[in-house]
Amino acid sequence: MTQSTNNDTIAAISTSPGEGGIGIVRLSGRDSLAIAERIFHPPKGGSASSYASHTVHYGHVKEPGSGEVVDEVLLTVMRAPRTYTTEDVVEISCHGGIMPSKRVLELCLGEGAALAEPGEFTRRAFLNGRIDLSQAEAVLDVIRAETDTSRKIAVEQLRGTFSVEVRSLRDSIIEILSLIELTIDFSQQDVEFPEKESIARGVDGAYLLLREMLETSDKGMVLREGASVVICGRPNVGKSSLMNALLRDDRVIVTPVPGTTRDVIEESINVAGAKVRISDTAGIIETRDRVEMEGIKRSREKLANADIVIFTLDRSRPLSERDEEIYETVKEKKHVIVANKADLPRKLDMREAGKRFMKEEILEASAMTKKGLGKIEDAIAEKLFKGDVKTPEGPVVTNIRHKALLEKALASMERAGKVTGKNYNAELLASDLNEAVYQLGLIIGESVADDVLERIFAEFCIGK
How confident is the model at residue 251 (pLDDT cuts 50, 70, 90)? Predict the structure, then answer.
């Protein structure tokens, strides 16, 4: 099968595999219309190459040579440059299902198209200048969004709000560099250059803007990537029942027998607009049972990597040494303490438990009656967002690549700020500012290395 180059016409199935209403085969490149013309046959004749841009046409796809009808389709023509890739684009809407679109794709490849690589349509949109690199990454974020909040943020990124902010900041630093060049030009003259104060103010302003952008990253990363929340506790405190209650679904097997859960079970819920991957774990006990030992080992590994732990107690039983031992393993992590089984007579001394657990708040809940679930979710949200659950206004840093580059740019601007002090050195200052400009340029795709592009677009599906 032919591997594409940037000059090839590419083709791929752009809809998910399996049965559905339609299956779309997409072509992009200078030969898109010619290839479509050889396999598409409208009922009243005519040719695809004569169709106006952004029009839809009914007909059949037929196998060249034999004339066998492959499928009844709609053909959409979009002419350059007003297309997703800025190239000529043709989309053939087949009947849903695996075989119709697969057969149409095979005909396109047989007529000279190359099979698109993962993310190649979006990559061409970037390389052809329709979007920058951060917008290209936002396409994937829109596709993968699992909450409405993460979708909204991704759409804003795709619209370019983040790019505009980064580009504006980069341009302002470039302006400062132009003033520094004048400083260097005057350095051999016995004249005090008057722009030094203006340069210092500009450096300080750029530094503050960078820091403000980075302050959105913790919340932004949670909203994009989600968070891991692990329910832990000794056996039979109701961890599985609590997970089912939070999921609003009987996902986990629940029995009165201690140790029912022997493996880590993970599902997702929406908490304050963020995807939360919530895990039920095996009760942490001392055991010689090999299966239980493996379950407990996995529980401890999950706990070690959790963003938040729900440490679960049994309100209907007195506090045990095992409870205290488990608390010691989670107290340094972000955690919420929940006394489950509030529907049963209380035997847990809440005041004593509070003393043992460093006077932390203990939330009372019942997985059976659903009492206290809202408070647990509120506590999770507060831990995730440090008490501020509102989505940040303006551009939000949601991508770990962007965060790393912004941190490097901030470090450069911090060094530049020190240089603008008493020991002003124009050459050193220019070096620091050029580094910041370079790092910001990498975010939007200026001078980005090919291996970085490969890593980014490899995450896309074929057909996008």
Answer: low
